[in-house]
Amino acid sequence: MKVIIPAAGVGTRLRPHTHTIPKALLHVAGKPILAYILDSVARLSPEEVIIVTGFLGDKIQKYVSKHYDLNARYVKQEKLLGLGHAVYTALNGFDGGPTLIMLGDTIVETDIKAFISKGENVLGLTPVDDPQRFGIAEVENGHVVELVEKPAKPKSNLAIIGLYYVNDGAVLKEHLDRLITSDRKTKEEYQLTDALQSMIDAGVKFNAFSVDGWFDCGKKETLIATNRHLLEKLQLPVPIEGSVIIPPAFIAPTAVIESSVIGPYVSVSDKAVIKKSIIQNSIIDYGARVENALLHDSLIGHKAIVSCDFRALNVGDSSEIEHF
């Protein structure tokens, strides 16, 4: 089996952080988003992992090469023309066979082996409150009968969550090729849902697979919400003399915490320094420095410096905010 991980998006809703870090490498609950995906993939022992990259793709390649022993291949999506185009780029020269697709900015908590065992072709779905924001599936007798990308008037609330399995990737490639050759776009992009619907119209059956644990990391609010959920699954943090750590929280071994109250729901990455501060429901990235601050619902970027009394911040990499 081959695994495709589209990770080329620039993450505009997570700026300023994604000016310097690919969205897939933003930290949540102690490690990059991509790490949660690759941890699941590694347990499958895939034949090959194809990662579709774009802006800052070299950082993704460097991270994966350093932390994972996978047969990984990197394909650059030169133009961001949609998820369908990203998958098509990955399938270029593909000789067919079982193919699993997992989005590089979405964390899914489910039994992946059970997912791919559900049938020859499987789509991961979950109910949502705002179906107009997602690709939506109609299901009858356990099979997907219609897919619509961000419908104005949804017939269902079952969202496509970015987890796909096809028994033969060559068939998917054929339908994507038709989509792109005919220049058929939805909302100005080549949509994977349109290619999958083409397969359904041609008689290919897709089984629906219900997924409860699905976490979109596409904007600040959902990234912090995902951080909260994942922290609840971690062991209690080690006490730090002179400070108060309120679980759930993650404190990296090389972080420095002095005279501070950390938590609940705070992730502190390696080499971050926090002094004389109170921080709740926030993510403090690698090498960041926070002093004399009262923070909640905040993202403090890679090597950013915050030294003042603020309430909520969204500070990108290498920024400095100080009180004079």
What features would you describe in this structure?
The chain has seven helices and 27 strands. The protein is 22% helix and 32% strand. With 324 residues, the chain is α/β, with parallel strands linked by helices. The protein has two domains: 2-228, Spore Coat Polysaccharide Biosynthesis Protein SpsA, Chain A; 237-322, Hexapeptide repeat proteins (UDP N-Acetylglucosamine Acyltransferase, domain 1), CATH 2.160.10. It starts with a strand and ends with a strand. Strands 1, 4, 5, 6, 8, 9, 10, 11 and 12 form a nine-stranded mixed beta sheet that branches. Strands 15-18-21-24-26 form a five-stranded parallel beta sheet, with helices on one face. A five-stranded parallel beta sheet has the order 16-19-22-25-27, with no helix packed on it. The longest helix has 13 residues, at 169-181.
Q: What's the pLDDT, averaged over the residues?
A: 87
Category from helices, strands and their pairing: alpha/beta
Q: How many β-strand stretches?
A: 27
Identify the CATH architecture of the largest domain.
Alpha-Beta Complex
Which quaternary structure do these chains form? single chain
- What is the domain total for the residues? 2
What composes the largest sheet?
9 strands, mixed
CATH class of the largest domain: Alpha Beta
Low-confidence stretches: none
Strand content: 25-35%
N-to-C span: 58 Å
User: What would you call the shape?
Assistant: elongated
The name of the CATH topology of the largest domain is: Spore Coat Polysaccharide Biosynthesis Protein SpsA, Chain A
> In CATH, what is the homologous superfamily of the largest domain?
Spore Coat Polysaccharide Biosynthesis Protein SpsA, Chain A
Helix percentage: 10-25%
Our count of helices gives 7
User: Radius of gyration over alpha carbons?
Assistant: 21 Å
